[in-house]
Amino acid sequence: xxxxxxxxxxxxxxxxxxxxxxxxxxxxxxxxxxxxxxxxxxxxxxxxxxxxxxxxxxxxxxxxxxxxxxxxxxxxxxxxxxxxxxxxxxxxxxxxxxxxxxxxxxxxxxxxxxxxxxxxxxxxxxxxxxxxxxxxxxxxxxxxxxxxxxxxxxxxxxxxxxxxxxxxxxxxxxxxxxxxxxxxxxxxxxxxxxxxxxxxxxxxxxxxxxxxxxxxxxxxxxxxxxxxxxxxxxxxxxxxxxxxxxxxxxxxxxxxxxxx
Length: 260
What we know:
By secondary structure, the chain is α/β, with parallel strands linked by helices. Helix content is about 50%, strand content about 15%. The protein has helices spanning about 10-25, 30-35, 45-50, 55-65, 120-130, 145-155, 165-175, 180-190, 195-210, 215-230, 240-245, 245-260, and strands at about 75-85, 90-100, 105-115, 140, 160-165. It has a 5-stranded mixed sheet, sandwiched between helices. Helix 6 (about 145-155) links the parallel strand 4 (about 140) and strand 5 (about 160-165). Helix 7 packs antiparallel against helix 8 (about 180-190) and helix 9 runs antiparallel to helix 10 (about 215-230). The longest helix is centred in the last third of the chain and has 16 residues, at about 195-210. It is elongated.
């Protein structure tokens, strides 16, 4: 019990070690083994969980903190993890928002967990961000999830939407012949190698026209997605590599999965 309300320096140090290991993605079973290796007996998995429960308060303060700066760029994405609910293991959606301030500082703005990434969930999530002070958003980058797009349009008025180029290429490959997917992907990527906005738009149409006779569905997809995938072109060129996909979120998604 004293470890749950530490008084001595040693107890506080042990609590810090346990919490740090837990945050680092070490399982409660392995934390128990770590404590035992330090020569301390009698700390069970359930005690480890209770010792780490205090972290929930810090997490909640982080999730609910006011957002004081303007964030011209916003990335949104979801990943799925396994969670215990009602005695069952179920899949849960973890939605994430990362923003960049005008001075170029990247911040995790919000994270939430729900049964699925439907439009209603995204709508609540974005409204909560705005209620906390989110403002100044000029461009939102995400995949083409319809519920997410509708939520962005409903909440973030005046912001452009950038369809993640990586997700788009995956969508394009889904309608391309399997044996030609590598060629299709490489050809589409030539668009993003163009040095100017005008050349990128010309190359997009050139690539779409090149697909039209052999793969009309692929060409139609490119026609439909052109404005959304090339939205990044209206922003400073030095920002293109960061804003044309949700890649800035991918590392965070991997860390979340590792820790769960």
